[in-house]
Amino acid sequence: MVRRGAGRKGLDKSMAALSEQEFRVKSDEALEAARRALLPLADAEGFEVELQNGVLNLVFEEPSDAKFVVSPNAPVRQIWVSAMARSYKLAWSAELSAFALEGEPLPALLERLTRTFLRA
What we know:
Elements: H1 13-17, H2 20-45, E1 48-52, E2 55-60, E3 66-73, E4 78-83, E5 86-93, E6 98-101, E7 104-105, H3 106-119
Antiparallel strand pairs: 1-2, 2-3, 3-4, 4-5, 5-6, 6-7
Helix pairs in contact: 2-3
């Protein structure tokens, strides 16, 4: 007897760990937490942080016009960040209870990228 889905290659462990509903809840919470974490830096540095329709945007006018886009990608259970002509794909880390890339949680990644951009 062959079970459906058994032995599927390429199935990411993080994707298997969260149901679609769990992903939606956790990604919404993660985007809101990132927004709140970035507000003091946004106030100090003069950029906008907007959370609309499940997408977080960081909008800069200085040192140049730019936008960072942070959005959930439900089919792969990741949060994707597009910033400074690069893409970052964050998976759920059960150990950190956060979406993270190589151990760096979403708010820390966004703050680091923002500070790098502002120094440019």
